[in-house]
Structure formats: structure tokens, C-alpha cells
Amino acid sequence: LPAGGVSLRLCSTQVAQEGINKPVIDRIIRVDHAGEYGANRIYAGQMAVLGRSSVGPIIQQMWNQEKDHLKKFNELMVAYRVRPTVLLPFWNVAGFVLGAGSALLGKRGAMACTVAVEESISDHYNNQIRTLMEEDPEKYKELLQVIKQFRDDEREHHDIGLEHDAEATPAYSVLKTAIQLGCKAAIFLSERI
């Protein structure tokens, strides 16, 4: 099974919507879909610049996991009848530019971007896990399983970035802070629009 053992089967039927907190679930699935879409575009940008370098296979491996994540959220959007954010065309361009731009700083720059983004996303997933646990852990069991697995994958990507000298990037803390502010803005907007 891809994505750390989470089933990625196609959802041909809708999820029983009885008793779920539809606004919360809509917000979670919409923003997670947008985030995984953006992550795919970041890795596409990094591969465009560094794909043939020594770090190319590592970036490709992380990108492959992100592709599995996006596929699963595409399925969940259909199953829960959630509309995507209208900002996807913007995230398409912004994600690619961020990925390519950070990769133009070299391997360390790409890894610094990975650390910043994946830390933001895993923190965001932790917040969602807390929300769903407070709502009803049994009712949201499948969604919790997916989010926990994907959070763990994002933490793994974060750690890979650190192992590949992300912190040695010039002005690392400034770059990391700027990227994480952008992530927070993207999360805020994608949940709502």
C-alpha cells in the first residue's frame, strides 16, 4: 500500500454524512487538498531545477509520497462532497515558483524549503487531529488515520531536509520564517475560500 499503509482505493460511493460536522470536515478536506496540491507543485519546481543532481532521487521520493497524498484527498473530496478552494490556480503557480526558487539556491535551499513547509504542514495536521479527537474520534476514524499517516510522512520529509543540510542555507532562519508565514496565509485562505 502506498503512503505508509493508508488505503488509497477509489471512493465510488459517498461517505455517510449523517451526524458529521460538515463545516469542519469541509474545511479540513478543502485545506488539506490545497496543501497537498501545493506540495506537489513545490516538488515539481524543485525537480525542474535539481532533478538531475545528486539530490534529485531524494526529492523524487518525497514527491511520490505527496502524489499519493493528493490522490487520497482527491478521493475524500468526492466522498465527502467538498468543493476545492478557488485558489488552486494560484497555488499551482506559487508552489512551482517556491520550489524552483528555493532549488535555485542549491540543494540546501531546496531542503530549507522542505523543512519549513513540512514543519508547517505537520503542525497543521496536529491541530486537525486535535479538532477531530474533540469532535468524535470514532466518527472520524478513517479521516484521523489518513491525517496521522500523512503527518508522519511530512515529519519524515522534514527530517530528510535537516539531514541534507537545510540549516546550512545562508539566512536559513529568515528563509524558513518567510516560507512558514506564507504557509500560514495559504492555510487560512484555503480553509475559507
TrEMBL record:
Question: What domain of life?
Answer: Eukaryota
GO CC terms: mitochondrial inner membrane; nucleus
Entries under InterPro entries matching the protein: Ferritin-like_SF, Ubq_synth_Coq7
Pfam families with a match to the protein in the record:
COQ7
A biological process (GO) of this protein is: regulation of reactive oxygen species metabolic process
Select a single GO molecular function from the record's annotations and give it.
Answer: 3-demethoxyubiquinol 3-hydroxylase activity
Q: In which pathway does it act?
A: Cofactor biosynthesis; ubiquinone biosynthesis
Q: Which SUPFAM superfamilies match?
A: Ferritin-like (SSF47240)
* Keyword Metal-binding in record: yes
Protein keywords:
Iron, Membrane, Metal-binding, Monooxygenase, Oxidoreductase, Ubiquinone biosynthesis
Mind telling me what this protein is named?
COQ7 protein
Give the originating organism: Atrichornis clamosus
